[in-house]
Write a structure and sequence with these properties.
Keywords: Signal. This is Copper(I)-binding protein. The chain has about 180 residues and is an alpha+beta fold. The chain contains 2 helices and 9 strands. Strands 1, 2, 3, 4, 5, 6, 7, 8 and 9 form a 9-stranded mixed beta sheet that branches. The chain starts with a helix and ends with a helix.
């Protein structure tokens, strides 16, 4: 049984309408990037890799622009041999040896606290740091934070002094 040309056109229009309705029901998700497929740093610091070294939650804590800053975070050496990591900042360079399949946690190091002199950016900004492992080098924009968050207060070089709130300042004027 053959269908008439008119019937075929009606079927094509119906099928096309169904496809359009289906696309409309899916919203923009058919053409939009899904945020759950993106990899990102789920922390305050950077999450990167240079050669066999994983950089996890690397950030700088400082009290203000021009003041010393302290590196926080962890570096993991995933290789079977020790590696030399060089971190070049604005005014200085640090070299750290990480043993094979070991880690270096800045917060745990008392002798070498990872202090960088004269951070040129205010808390909330990003500072370029060069990380070199063996002969591979990469520059990353590392966030600068202050002691506003309680978990970072003990790491602020020179200690953390909170800013007075507007209500505290107003109360001082009344006296």
């Amino acid at each position: 049984m053959k269908s008439s040309p008119k019937k075929r056109v009606q079927l094509a229009v119906t099928a096309g309408s169904a496809v359009l309705a289906l696309l409309g029901a899916t919203g923009c998700s058919a053409t939009s990037l899904q945020a759950t497929t993106l990899q990102y740093s789920a922390s305050d610091g950077i999450v990167e890799q240079v050669g066999p070294v994983l950089l996890r939650n690397i950030l700088i804590i400082t009290s203000d622009e021009g003041e010393p800053g302290r590196l926080l975070g962890t570096m993991f050496n995933e290789s079977d041999s020790p590696v030399q990591v060089t971190i070049d900042g604005e005014n200085e360079s640090s070299q750290i040896t990480i043993e094979a399949n070991d880690k270096y946690v800045f917060e745990d190091e008392v002798d070498d606290d990872g202090t960088l002199q004269g951070i040129s950016e205010i808390p909330g900004a990003l500072v370029d740091l060069d990380f070199t492992v063996n002969s591979e080098s990469q520059t990353f924009r590392v966030p600068v934070l202050d002691g506003t968050l309680e978990e970072y207060r003990e790491y602020v070089p020179g200690g953390f002094t909170p800013e007075p709130s507007p209500s505290e300042e107003a109360g001082e004027e009344d006296h």
